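Handoff note, outgoing to incoming analyst
You'll be picking up this chain. Sequence as last confirmed:
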Amino acid sequence: MTIPPNQDDANKARTTYFNLPALDVSLAFPQATPAAIFPPCTSDYYQSNDLLTPEEQALRMRVRQSVEKEVAPIMAEYWEKAAFPFHIIPKLGALRIAGGTIKGYGCPGLSITASAIATAEVARVDASCSTFILVHSSLAMLTIALCGSEAQKQKYLPSLAELKTVACWALTEPDYGSDASALKTTATKVEGGWMLDGQKRWIGNATFADVLIIFARNTTTNQINGYIVNKNVPGLKATKIENKIGLRMVQNGDILLKQVFVPDEDRLPGVNSFQDTNKVLAVSRVMVCWQPIGISMGVYDMCHRYLKERKQFGAPLAAFQINQEKLVHMLGNVQAMILIGWRLCKLYETGKMTPGQASMGKSWISVKARETVALGRELLGGNGILSDFLVAKAFCDLEPIYTYEGTYDINSLVTGREITGFASFKPAALSKRSRL
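Most recent structure output, in case you need it:
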């Protein structure tokens, strides 16, 4: 006769069983190498590296080697935890890419092509780290460089360039995303400075930034002005946005400003209307174009290695026709994306780039990257939903990039306005009513 086990013992046994740590992925699935050991770059099929100067090529290799070594082994862990790996900030700072195209003040003074290539190389391994640098460098630092006073540049840029301090850039609000120029945060002139009141949302680096670039509406002029706010000032509160499915390592935050005092010396003198932000957005939009390029490169590289390692039906997956077709489709997309991104950089460097060209680059490259990572997701089968093999993480990380710095639709309309002469952002009925 079998004696039923004690219920407490059975519960303990179940608890012990279910609390066992997962097998290391290399042991659980030995047939393919996880992304912690990052695959070699095989995505430059048209040898676009030849388009770069020797200095730009050297920077690419330096960034690639560092990010593959420092970020690849830990990215899945931190992505799953939705936590930022603060310990790698000094290593990212040592790359000397923060500050990008800014000259002087301890900044690297890179060509926009070099800065774009560095952005792609970080994104190739991890999109979250790329976004962290982009927000800090191509938005916040660049705003100080283009719109700040000489004293502000000397005070803030050297430390930011070394990533000894971190910055964020706060434009978007809960009610105003694509319609950012209608923002409601206010700046009221008081003796010796300004009082800021309002709310910001989706601000990358917000929860730990030392320096916050805040855009607010001047209550006297009704124009958009910019302000430098230091962390821990009275009335400032930044909290993390939870439950994201993409860029999970990026600490996006909600910012509340209640009677936050900013001294006169921290008002950005070069931001006197919303149009002044376009000087910054023109550069940052080029950089954002190179994030999906880098992501797509990494996904292709991962799929290329995986298909050669993984065997089914007695042969490597790379030997099957349908897989080869998808891989070639991905590779073709990457080549086209690189060439569009490279040409955009050259247009900017010669002073010929228009807002419509930048917007089309961002929208077209983003949609092609979305297609590319979706094909990669198919190629990896079940492992295509595991962050250990990169593609699932990249698939999710691309979604917020597809949306930020102008959605696909808004960027398309920016280009449409430029080529037709007609703005179509508001429904015709609303536009007509606003003129009455």
